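User: Please fill in residues for this 163-position structure.
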């Protein structure tokens, strides 16, 4: 896993926005395995706004720490809008952050009904969550890289509309 110049630029843009607003962020990641958090902390000063991240790879961790229910997973699948949005809310509560970014999906592998490359990303606050489904399969490494980058970009775009 590497952080490229575009990732560093995104991380610095977000750091500036969060510090100027006096806000905090956390992450709840499944298929990206901490890549969003790693990108955010790739710049100096990230500790001014980044509270922490939880890699919730197993369903049991999502249930125990993020408020996702077994019923929600059974009804919608763990790779779903409903689950990623609950992960955002759960991370905000778990860390006490103003905002959170989250991911769940099949970076590699997949199932008959949900193919490899299907990744849901989410961002927002406990009361205002946004999500997006990614579906392009470019292999595990590229899928996780793209998902982390898109989550951060989407979050920045949402913040820009709140000016």
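Assistant: Residues filled in for all 163 positions:
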């Amino acid at each position: 896993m590497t952080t490229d110049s575009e990732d560093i630029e995104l991380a610095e843009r977000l750091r500036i926005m969060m510090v100027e607003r006096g806000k905090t962020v956390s992450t709840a990641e499944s298929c990206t395995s901490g890549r969003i958090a790693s990108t955010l902390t790739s710049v100096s000063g990230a500790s001014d706004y980044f509270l922490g991240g939880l890699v919730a790879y197993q369903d049991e961790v999502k249930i125990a720490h993020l408020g996702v229910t077994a019923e929600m997973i059974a009804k919608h699948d763990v790779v779903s809008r409903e689950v990623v949005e609950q992960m955002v809310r759960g991370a905000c509560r778990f860390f006490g952050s103003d905002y959170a970014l989250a991911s769940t999906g099949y970076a590699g592998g997949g199932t008959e009904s949900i193919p490899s490359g299907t990744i849901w990303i989410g961002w927002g606050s406990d009361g205002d969550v946004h999500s997006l489904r990614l579906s392009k399969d470019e292999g595990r490494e590229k899928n996780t890289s793209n998902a982390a980058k898109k989550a951060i970009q989407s979050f920045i775009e949402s913040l820009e509309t709140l000016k």
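For context: The mean pLDDT is 95.
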